[in-house]
Amino acid sequence: MTNRTTIHLEINGQNQALEVEPRVTLLDALRDHLQLTGTKKGCDQGQCGACTVHVDGERVLACLTLAAQAEGRKITTVEGLSEPGGELHPVQAAFLDHDAFQCGYCTPGQIMSAVACIREGHAGSDDDIREYMSGNLCRCGAYPHIVEAIREAAKVMS
Amino acid sequence: MRDFSYLRASSVEEARRAAAMPATMLLAGGTTLVDLAKCGVTEPERVVDISHLKGLDTIRVDAQGAYIGALAKMNRVAADAAIKSAFPAVSESLWQAASAQIRNMATIGGNLLQRTRCAYFRDPATFPACNKRVPGSGCSALEGVNRGHAVLGTSDDCIATYPGDLAVALIALEAVVHLGDRTVAIDDFFLLPGTTPQKEHAMQPGELITAITIPASPAARRSTYLKVRDRQSYEFAAASAAVGIEFEPDGETIRDIRIGLGGVATKPWRARAVEDALRGKAIEPDIIKSASRLAVEGAVAHGGNHYKIELAPRVVERAILKTGAMA
Q1: pTM of the entire structure?
Q2: Nearest Cα residue in chain B from A62
Q3: How far is CA A55 from each of CA A52, A69, A76, B263, rounded to the nearest angstrom?
Q4: Last residue of some domain: A59, A80, A101?
Q5: What is the ipTM score, two decimals?
Q6: A–B: how many Cβ contacts below 8 A?
Q7: What CATH number does the domain containing A97 carry?
Q8: Percentage of residues of chain A with pLDDT beyond 90
């Protein structure tokens, strides 16, 4: 069956056109069609947050977004947070400084979510950070260090 | 996920025409549709994307009430200053729903159309029996793990709990669902499972939610949403209550009270018996406590969910006292 649709996305500042089946999610388009594997597939059903990316500047779940639906939108993935070879984004640097991960699989999603959380003004207290980061699970349980990292990054970014 | 054909609607009329075709589903935020399509629960042949339609995401609040366009995102409504001030229970119910990412994606219209669902409904491969998925196939939850299932409004065919938060506040504040040509009171919009659990809403093929309106009232202005759950965030309610109160000028006699219940019923539940018992009464702890028991009149447990019959009245009681104490 040739049931394909052509979509145009701006991903990390670059225009991309790709041809996909309508059922292909933004997550699979990024990973399998564009080889941007920084965005992780965890549960693939909207429960873990590993696939968090920014669409038009807002954090969303790439696993529950159809690629076709993102037509004409600006997508930022973890690969687009800092310039290649450039300085790390303050949130990335804070995750390193505070050892805010163990296995690292949830980390790109945590970082993308944290950048948005700070920008939304939801990182004013540890309770706020825990509440507004609740859509990102870490099975290694690095939560105390993740909260620390976001708290510190928020100070740097303000 | 089975493949489908995809149409990006360019007008409400086009979307409605397309939605009238068989095996066709509308796509807004996608958080429910894409999830259930992956589970193999919904298998649309055609998906009509309405997320790019213009002018359906307005949020407007005036002296008459609130108008919220169907495509307004949960997050925007929750954060809206006028909604917070005139309808605090609405904002609070949205903040406590889902996660920040999902609230950025999900729309108000889609929120109302999220499926009333349970773990058995979501897992067709392991549990073929589900009257909601396959009418007449049976209910796996009746004799299964049913800690999260409903105790109010159940039938022999289905005991799945209505999982949403927003509609619980909307039931209490008597919102109205706009379907283009007609309007439906929110309490009539949601259907009891009865013998047709597959039908959850009073919508016909080809209909589309364009907006909801919420009438302004003193009880809406003094309203709260209290959600009790196993995990503090990103979790469905074990029991929740939306309460709005209007006092007499003496500041302690209840002139009007509205109570919605969540997490315990098969649809967003209006606790009218509690309201009737409290209208004209003083807001005193003993009176509130005994009236709150009426919230679970007629409740039926199925083993694992017996605790909800004890929990729900306590949540109602706490929510009433909290609302009464609002500035």
Answers
A1: 0.97
A2: B101
A3: 10, 11, 7, 32
A4: A80
A5: 0.97
A6: 88
A7: 1.10.150.120
A8: 94
